[in-house]
Design goal:
3-stranded mixed beta sheet, globular, alpha+beta, Aminopeptidase, single chain, 10-stranded mixed beta sheet, 31% strand
């Protein structure tokens, strides 16, 4: 298990979120070579390991949602992509509206508005899943650094409410790690055997709950944030 220390801070520019911490950088993925890294990581996880999507000769996992999406990743000092998530704002078509509508339950509806976004293709490189970051606020697994980037992206875009579809194990992990997620419907066993769960989370509720129960986590997430910083620190 590799431990990294240090905090360098958040930088917001015309290219979006850029957060440096503990030898890692969380940033938006714009350049073509970085997008290729993202599509290759997705292929390794979703095509080769999980087999949720077909294997391709190019070893790249790309779909119709990518062109309209924003891409966020965690990179190490050698510019290797370690963790990734795709973000779709409310003016885009969500996967929940098409491929994953089944997880919404019999009603098949959810509230989509200007303050919502959808997280898809969340993945962490298998070789770095045990890495942790040591901060003045506590020690956190690598995937939580990616979610810190998602938090700042949501605050920057006025989209504190996020939707996602994941498997039941990841859903329980998120709840255990301090992300108060609401289920959108019952668990659904997909054709590949994965038990999928649709979830909704509001960063405002998340920060309030963690400010009371996990003040170190709330302070770490709010660090250098313009939005929700004062309220999170007040409850810490």
């Amino acid at each position: 298990m590799m431990l990294r220390e240090g905090t360098e801070g958040l930088h917001q520019s015309t290219t979006g979120i850029r957060l440096r911490e503990g030898g890692y950088t969380v940033r938006m993925i714009k350049a073509e070579d970085d997008l290729v890294k993202a599509y290759r990581l997705r292929h390794r996880i979703f095509a080769e390991k999980l087999r949720w999507v077909p294997v391709t000769k190019s070893e790249l996992e790309i779909d119709g949602y990518d062109a309209d999406a924003e891409h966020l990743g965690v990179f190490d000092a050698d510019n290797r992509l370690l963790a990734y998530v795709r973000l779709l704002s409310a003016d885009r078509r969500y996967m929940l509206e098409d491929e994953f509508r089944i997880v919404l339950g019999p009603g098949g509806t959810f509230l989509k508005s200007g303050d919502t976004c959808e997280l898809t293709r969340f993945c962490v490189d298998q070789q770095t899943r045990q890495e942790e970051i040591v901060t003045p606020f506590g020690t956190f697994p690598l995937f939580m650094l990616l979610f810190k980037g998602v938090y700042h992206w949501g605050m920057q875009h006025g989209a504190p409410v996020l939707y996602a579809v994941t498997d039941r194990i990841v859903y329980k992990l998120l709840c255990m790690r301090g992300f108060p997620c609401e289920r959108l419907g019952p668990s659904v066993r997909m054709p590949d055997g994965v038990v999928a769960v649709g979830l909704r989370m509001d960063w405002r509720n998340c920060m309030k709950a963690n400010g009371e129960k996990r003040p170190g986590l709330a302070a770490w997430y709010a660090q250098n944030s313009i939005s929700l910083l004062s309220s999170a620190m007040a409850t810490a």
